[in-house]
């Protein structure tokens, strides 16, 4: 039994219509949190690399990531309820 090509084409995920606007997405974050998020999530640096680049301790990087995630979660919750 051969697979129908039109069926397979329907299963493909459509491409994103617009790229994400990370500046708008990261608006609730402090400037330092924004910078850490950019380096971690966009530039794909490790916490150790971020710490060296920003001249801070690795634990401070984790703190900024944790607090930033919490702020973004709260922002999502706030917008979902209203």
Automatic annotation (TrEMBL):
Which InterPro entries does the entry link to? RNA_pol_sigma70_r4_t2, RNA_pol_sigma_r3/r4-like, WH-like_DNA-bd_sf
Classify the source by domain of life: Bacteria
Q: Which residues form the RNA polymerase sigma factor 70 region 4 type domain?
A: 29-72
**SUPFAM superfamilies the record matches:** Sigma3 and sigma4 domains of RNA polymerase sigma factors
Q: What is this protein called?
A: RNA polymerase sigma factor
What species is given as this protein's source? Lapidilactobacillus mulanensis
